[in-house]
Specification:
The complex is a heterotetramer, with 2 copies of chain A and 2 copies of chain B.
Chain A: E1 6-11, H1 13-19, E2 23-27, E3 32-33, H2 34-44, E4 56-59, E5 62-63, E6 69-70, E7 75-79
Parallel strand pairs in A: 1-7
Antiparallel strand pairs in A: 1-2, 3-6, 4-5, 4-7
Chain B: E1 2-5, H1 11-16, E2 25-32, E3 36-37, E4 40-49, H2 51-68, E5 73-79, E6 81-83, E7 88-96, H3 99-116, E8 119-125, E9 130-133
Parallel strand pairs in B: 1-5
Antiparallel strand pairs in B: 2-7, 3-4, 4-6, 4-8, 5-7, 8-9
Classes of the chains: A alpha+beta, B alpha+beta.
């Protein structure tokens, strides 16, 4: 559903509250590594910066390493340490 | 049975779903909302999930558990939304041929669920404070939330 | 709830009896009748107890468990009489503040029950043999029984 | 209920079947130690002898050591290793 040329970034729990939105759309000109998405998010969402060293990142519903390649249309998620159970 | 739900958990149905004549042992674990944690009184807990990832993560958990333990059947159901003290937040049932395996598998499942599955809880204390809970720092106050210690 | 019964076990009632807002964890263990043990097919199991001693022994077990683990509530119910594969022979439920304690207490209770409480099972195999089961020697044939390997 | 001057001995499971009765009454002239009861039982119930090194003994619903004092009126129980659960 996401148009080609953008990456959707979802935020949850304290991360969502810290930036005041559940979702951002980032324009990308082609495949990028996760690190680049992370930098863009932290620049646009200053409220996240105090949390940044504790944030977890997922790509298409799987935890992802910084070097993971992101394709236009992919969904990235950003959230604090989990606390279910 | 692997699911997220906003309804009260029917742990009997969850337990029945893993019973099997090939299993000599069933272990059911219930994570329930405590009234007091570290001297603080909880009024309610609120669970939020990244639903799509949490569901696939619970399925992966069950699959991975089956590579570590001789599981006959496993079931994991986590509740979302607002819970009161005494309510069941998560139910994990597992059946295995012998008893030690059932305890080990049940404990591995809840321990690993708490490390991996994208679900978060927010604690509402009776004194009005509201705090996201994080395993490493339960009193960590993230910017933007309506309270802090 | 600590008892022996010749009726099917209501493990939901047993679990409810240990739930408590002071407990964050409940572990229920069910020992169920397996259809095959070491390649032998079981038709039915028959449980016999020294009732008076078994009842006081179960109560002692619960009391002793409370000295080893921070148990909020515990329940132990053992069924007697003839059981079919799939039936629940024993249900142990325990609630504790935290989860690791509940698993440890549940496992200690069933392990110790099996060592101490005067209850015996006799296995009826589909080939007609009937054997008393003993932990150290499952195929030990005591004089006077109606079969033997 | 047991008259003074006797000790009741109960048998369970394979022990009961080995001797063909669930209960024996042994006359005693006063307090005796469990060992003495055990010897009397094994003399009267020859079918138990193949099991004797595996038998467990209880006095008044508690596991008992060989030196336990038994009073007239007490209840002793004799049974094979337990196998509940």
């Amino acid at each position: 559903m996401t148009p080609s040329g953008t990456v959707t970034v979802l935020f949850f729990a304290a991360a969502r509250e810290a930036i005041g939105t559940a979702e951002l759309s980032l324009p990308v000109s082609g495949p990028v590594i996760l690190t680049e998405i992370q930098q863009q998010v932290l620049q646009r969402a200053i409220g996240l910066q105090p949390l940044q060293h504790r944030l977890l990142w997922a790509v298409n519903n799987q935890y992802a390493l910084p070097a993971t390649m992101i394709q236009p249309g992919d969904t990235v998620a950003c959230f604090p340490p989990v606390s279910g159970g | 049975m692997i699911q997220l739900t906003d309804q009260p958990l029917d742990y009997t149905a969850i337990t029945e779903s893993v019973r099997d004549p090939a299993a000599g042992a069933v272990v059911l674990f219930l994570g329930t909302v405590r009234d007091f944690t570290a001297g603080e009184q909880t009024q309610q807990l609120e669970y939020e999930a990244y639903q799509q990832m949490a569901e696939s993560s619970l399925k992966q958990l069950a699959d991975e558990a089956s590579t570590h333990f001789p599981i006959v059947k496993a079931a994991i159901v986590h509740r979302l939304g607002v819970l009161q003290p005494g309510d069941v937040a998560v139910a994990i049932a597992v059946s295995t041929p012998h008893r030690a395996q059932a305890f080990a598998a049940g404990q591995w499942l809840i321990d690993t669920l708490k490390q991996r599955v994208p679900i978060w809880k927010r604690e509402h204390y009776t004194d009005g404070r509201v705090l996201w809970q994080h395993p490493a720092a339960a009193t960590d106050a993230a910017a933007g939330q309506s309270g802090g210690t």
